[in-house]
Amino acid sequence: MKLDLATVGGFAVGLVLIIGAIILGGQPIIFVSFSSLLIVVGGTLAAATASYSFKHIQDLIKILKIAFYEQSMDPQEVISILVSFAEKARREGLLALEDETQDLDEPFLQKGIQLVVDGTDSELVRSILETELAFLDERHATSRGIFGTMAELAPAFGMMGTLIGLIQMLSTLDDPQNVGGGLATALITTFYGTFMANLIFIPLSKKLKMKSEEEILVKEVMIEGILSIQAGENPRIVEEKLKAFLSGSIRETLEEEELNAEGEMAVGSNAAS
Question: Would residue 141 count as lying in a domain?
């Protein structure tokens, strides 16, 4: 699996800029407060656990892998596989695809092709795959909802920590020397809450939403391709139909690659002759 450089780079740049600004301002040690961390991190995790089930919280590591790694199959690769399946099905029949399904790493595509090979009615194939896709979208919504909830909770617990610090500070107003330090500690808790919400939780929630949309798009391409293969459509028609799911820039890139490949084949055949 390849790292998603945009995710890693975004977090890295954000951390470097914020930490750099703190260091340039002098006395970075004043931004370290374990009591503030306990309030914000502990409170956020505790409230998120209360909002969801233990299973959802335990799955956070798996969810983070989705945000930090690129998906295994992109739309272009899926289209290429489906077009090759359409060509083989036209030449040898649908049963010839049974062996091909064993080599697939994508369970959704494997399941769809197997349903077609087994002779399942096209409407039932669509219903089964779209139902699975709907539940997948629901699971993804729950997963990114955890980070959305944490994004809402972290600033609130930061403010709670600030109130706690202010109360403690006001209780020692008879000693003016402690007022400045107490106020700084109170404000650090709000800093932690806003920092975690805006640099960690909100970006992760948005990244997971984008990843979910990309995965659903790929699976929609799979469904349309599988049904086209079952209908016995011409491979060229299948390819053009599936390209409609792609953005204009991706379609142009794909067409350029095809033209280059055709040019290389033509040069090779001329050289051979």
Answer: yes
